[in-house]
Amino acid sequence: MTPTHTPGRLAIPPLPTVLDAFNLAPADEARPLLLDCLGSLRWAERVLAHRPYPTVDALLAAADEAAYDLTASDLSEALAAETLPTLPDGIYSAAHMALDAAHAAYESRFGHAFVICLDGLPADEALDHVLAGIRSRLTNDPEDERVVAAEELRRTARGRLVSSLRGAESAATGPHPAPGA
Q1: What is the Cα–Cα distance from 117 to 130, expressed in whole angstroms?
Q2: Phi then psi for 166, rounded to 5 degrees?
Q3: What domains does the chain contain, in order, with CATH numbers?
């Protein structure tokens, strides 16, 4: 970040961005953020190793590439860290029972948590989308389901990474209390 300088004018460096903070953070501070996005240490290390990123799009592309390269062991590690997606409050108990039963059948068949990306989906459609996804994916053979689960993990990690960056940006640029408040 080199400030531009015009003779006779004060050179003011640009404010650091959330991406700058991610790029400059010690690995031990950035790693937990990445592991919250995708529970694979190898994925997190690969994303960390390619810093600094010139743009958020470059960071997301690197995260996608690292997710595409997950080994079977990496995928198992990431799937073990996942839980059932959080559904909106107010979902009636019969729906929770149906979801719990479908999830139990899925875990019994495939040996890991059901993963589905709900990014961009209206909250009132989440339950139906999750139930339909579990039911249709229960018919997959285990190898095909690992491919689908890996893609859902990649999409979920990407959404979590974007949310983390936006959340950090909002915290950095949000309202601050007045001095002495």
Answers
A1: 9
A2: -65, -40
A3: 18-172 (1.10.3330.10)
* Angle at the Cα of 119 from the Cα atoms of 115 and 121, rounded to 5 degrees: 105
For the chain, 181 residues long, give each residue's pLDDT as a single digit of tens. 555 556 667 666 666 788 999 999 999 999 999 999 999 999 999 999 999 999 999 999 999 999 999 999 999 999 999 987 766 666 667 777 888 899 999 999 999 999 999 999 998 888 889 999 999 999 999 999 999 999 999 999 999 999 998 876 666 555 544 434 4
Query: What type of residue sits at position 100?
Result: D
**Tokens in use for 138?**
């229960």
| Residue type at 96 in one-letter notation | H
Return the number of other C-beta atoms located less than 10 Å from residue 73's C-beta. Answer: 10
The DSSP symbol for 54 reads: S
Query: Burial level of 42, CB count in 10 A (0-12/13-18/19+)?
Result: middle
